[in-house]
Write a structure and sequence with these properties.
Strand order of the largest sheet: 2-1-3
Helix content: 25-40%
Length: about 140
């Protein structure tokens, strides 16, 4: 899916990084920063007082502990009960072109061999990965 050189370079230089995520309910439940708002910012996914944090937010907090910067950002644009095909049109509406790393996660992708649409979904995910690497020249919606 491409290298991580951009992300590595920015953290080495102490520059802020942006992590963007798309996916289904498993990614929504991954949490996000409260400033983003939306379902991923609900207390059940971001409740620091009770020590519960979604997996995506936990990973982002780990990045911040290792490479702190006040302008590091996590953007979670996942949607409940949504397959990869929903993101394939207008990809830039979900993934900012300035994102340094992209997380793509769909629960059905974990049901190896159990979903009749798995091959189609895998193709969509591969397409999304390639499209993001080629932005901003393709799939720009206005």
């Amino acid at each position: 899916m491409g290298g991580a050189e951009r992300l590595r370079r920015k953290v080495r230089l102490g520059q802020p990084v942006m992590i963007a995520a798309i996916g289904a309910s498993n990614t929504v439940r991954g949490g996000c920063e409260a400033r983003q708002g939306g379902k991923c910012a609900e207390a059940r996914y971001t409740n620091h007082t009770e020590g519960r944090v979604g997996w995506l937010l936990e990973a982002f907090m780990g990045l911040n502990r290792s490479f702190p910067h006040a302008k590091n950002r996590l953007i979670n644009r996942a949607q409940m009960a949504t397959g990869p095909e929903a993101f394939s049109r207008c990809l830039n509406a979900y993934l900012p072109v300035e994102a340094d790393a992209v997380v793509i996660s769909f629960a059905d992708m974990c049901k190896l061999g159990k979903s009749p649409t798995l091959p189609l979904q895998a193709r969509y995910v591969a397409g999304l990965s390639f499209e993001h690497l080629t932005l901003p020249d393709s799939t720009i919606c206005r």
